[in-house]
Structure formats: structure tokens, C-alpha cells
Design a protein that fits this description.
- The chain is mostly helical.
- 56% of the residues lie in helices and 3% in strands.
- It has a two-stranded parallel ribbon with strand order 1-2.
- α1 crosses α6.
- It starts with a helix and ends with a helix.
- Bound molecules: zinc ion.
Length: 153
């Protein structure tokens, strides 16, 4: 099975992309034959549509996709598969562990001195974090959808 909907599911669940990135993502999903009227409506919104107009469209469009509910470790693998750059991977990891129970506590993305004193937070030098960041996961994603998703990160 292609990873398109799995990637969208993880991005939606972890809030990895901005609200304004969703119309472009929706347009690619429509092009791939997904969704129904709500997704098509989201795909068609004009640039400059206000936040309050856009906000209610996203959940109804996502509801049409029948997104899979991935286990946390699988969701993390998919999220990290979206980005190559080490700093982007670190930022994505930080956001995923805030939402999903990955078992690495919190990541301190900004202040490494805090992580060294805090019993909960971990930084880049933590071995488990380093292993996660080094792990490679190739996703089978439509290239346009991948570009739309990563542009919104
Ligand atoms: Zn802390």
C-alpha cells in the first residue's frame, strides 16, 4: 500500500503543517482520487482565504479520507520519512513526541542546557534520540503530495 494516506494521517494527527498548507495538500489528494466534496472544497479555496474560513474545512475534508490510525512508533517512522535534513528531522521528532506516546519524554529543541538538568527532557546527545534521528525510512509517496506536505512543515 502506498504511504500517501499514512503520511497525511500522521501530519494531521501531530499538527505538523500549517493550516494554510492544507489546500495544496488537498489538491494533490484530489488529484490522486481521494476524498469527496469537502476535500474538493478545501482544494479549491483561494489564496488569502482567512484562517476562520479555512479552519472548519480541514476536519471535514480529513474525515472523508478514512485516515489510518497508526501505532506511535509507525507514525514516527512515517513523520521522519518526510524529511532528510538533520535539523528538520530533529524539529519533526520534537513535535511528534509532544503528541504521541513514543517513550522518549520531551525533546528540548531550543535549549540544550535545560535538557541536561531536566529529568523529562532529552536533547540531541541522548542515545535513543540519536538512534531515532539516524533511522532511515523510505516512504512510497506521490512526489507532488510529498512536496505539498514538506512545504507546509
Ligand atoms: Zn524539561
Amino acid at each position: 500500500m502506498r504511504d500517501d494516506l499514512r503520511a497525511v494521517a500522521v501530519v494531521a494527527r501531530c499538527g505538523l503543517i500549517g493550516l494554510d498548507a492544507w489546500p495544496n495538500v488537498a489538491a494533490h489528494l484530489v488529484g490522486l482520487g481521494h476524498g469527496g466534496d469537502a476535500l474538493a472544497e478545501l482544494a479549491a479555496v483561494e489564496r488569502g482565504t482567512t484562517w476562520s474560513e479555512l479552519e472548519p474545512l480541514v476536519p471535514s475534508a480529513l474525515a472523508e479520507l478514512g485516515l489510518p490510525d497508526l501505532p506511535p512508533d509507525e507514525a514516527l517512522r512515517v513523520a521522519l520519512g518526510l524529511v532528510e535534513d538533520p535539523m528538520e528531522r530533529w524539529a519533526v521528532l520534537g513535535r511528534v513526541v509532544d503528541v504521541l506516546p513514543i517513550g522518549v519524554g520531551r525533546l528540548e529543541v531550543e535549549i540544550s542546557a535545560h535538557a541536561q538538568d531536566c529529568p523529562v527532557c532529552r536533547d540531541l546527545d541522548d542515545p535513543q534520540v540519536r538512534d531515532l534521528l539516524r533511522s532511515r525510512s523510505a516512504l512510497d509517496l506521490d512526489s507532488g503530495l510529498r512536496a505539498a506536505l514538506t512545504a507546509g512543515l
